Amino acid sequence: MRVVVDLNRCQGYAQCAFLAPDVFAMHGEEALLYDGEPDGTRRLDVLRAEAACPVKAITVEGAGAAWTAAGAGVSNGP
Amino acid sequence: MTSVALLGQILDYANRADPYPLYAELRRTPVVRDESGPYLVSTYWEIHSLLHDPRVSSDIRNLAPEAKTAPRTEDPDLPPSFIRLDPPDHDRLRRLIMRTYGPPHAPRRVYGLRGEISGIVSGLIDRFQGRDRIDLVDDFSYPFPVTVICRLLGVPQEDEQRFHGWADTVATAIEPAVGTPEEQQAHWQAIREAHHQLAEYLSGLIAQRRRAPREDMISALATDRGADESPMSLPEMLSNLTLLLIAGHETTVNLITNGMLTLLRHPDTLKQLRADPDLVIPLVEELLRFEPPVQLLPERTTLDDIEIAGTTIPQGASLWLVPASGNRDPRRFPEPDRFLPDRPDNQHFGFGSGIHNCIGSPLARLEAQAALAELVRRLDNPRLVEDPPPYRHNAVLRGPRHLPIAFDGLSR
Q1: CATH of domain A2-61
Q2: Chain B residues with CB inside 8 Å of A21's CB?
Q3: Range of B64's domain?
Q4: Looking at the Swiss-Prot or TrEMBL record, what is one Pfam family this protein matches (chain A) (predicted)?
Q5: What average pLDDT values come out for chain B (412 residues) when binned by 10 residues?
Q6: What are the helix (H) ranges across B76-216?
Q7: Which of B340, B347, B362 is the closest to A15 by Cβ?
Q8: Where are chain A's structural domains?
Q9: Which of A9, A67, A68 would you mutate first to test chain B, the one with the most B CBs within 10 A?
């Protein structure tokens, strides 16, 4: 899978570095370093980081980039 | 000047189960003065703007005494915690806590708890064996987060029960006192007592870890010398540890309970989650939008006149932001009243925004994801026994007091 972070959007909330510390790391309080082609074993960590980003700066592409139910996750409830 | 009489209704217990129609009414005037005094802000972009505005203060000392209406949760004998401070005092304390809790200094503190979290979840669900009905709040949601906080801080397992007791009592301060004046007096007395016992216990633990540090967060706090700023004093540590305990406790209880309630009200989504447990990741984000544990942010103060959405909020006004309403603002979220587990571009206010954004959010996410995925996997044919369930009184930290769930069996 491939990871791209829009560093113009990133505001240093650091959710990704908490949830996927082998892929994302804070350098000081604001700068972000990351691995753009993480190992497949980090898939869930990366998906957690993507979902948790408060400014939606993280994009994940390639195999395993979504949940199988994507697009079907719709319910009107009772 | 237009004003509304909605805050009283929002706080009225009769509207606890479904406050969302009141928020929709409130959004007709994005910024409005309530007849009870405070200014209410209910639309997404206006809330966003004020959460990022340095002219909005969280420091309780800037608030006029007559404007103080929300219940006090802090120990009056300790300095204010960082949630109730502005920069630069807020920034110093938050930075010092972050040095012991998160990146860049402690990047694996929360991540390293994943195994513990899943063990605690399994252990609590194992205890449902042989039953066909549980109260999710008492049997699961309530004991779970405080156990995680104990592991995070480094509270020894043999002390956990005592710690749970203080946490429970201290947390009751978020509820308005009810009953006769004598009963209310006794209520506050019990809270004060628990605060003192908790402070005494934590002081002992800090002293002990200072002598013999371990790998936990209390040891890191007790031994940290700070970087550029002066390290935390003991009263500051006690005040901020108590905050982490209260804030990390009640809110997570409600997130998990609201989560199961929402899933049981949306059986198709529950089925999808059973088939694809990873769906829990975006689903928890949608839950934070749809049923946020923190509904209102009461009692911020304007340090200057602020012009917003055609209204001037005067300096010194009490400001109540309504993030649970911003989360349902149709100008920001298409079909805001539908629960869409993989909703795109979900920049909700579930954890606030700006400098006071929830410090516990990564931990809360891991806890809620683990709990909901495992509850849904293991409970066979779970169903609500009553809808709506009975709610807690609190309108700010809103959630069910009990959530009875019936089920046919328990998977391994």
Answers
A1: 3.30.70.20
A2: 103, 107-108, 111
A3: 3-410
A4: Fer4_13
A5: 85 96 97 93 98 95 74 76 95 95 97 97 98 97 94 93 86 74 87 93 97 96 86 95 86 97 98 96 98 94 96 94 98 98 97 97 98 98 98 92 97 93
A6: 89-101, 114-126, 136, 143-153, 160-171, 181-211
A7: B362
A8: 2-61
A9: A67
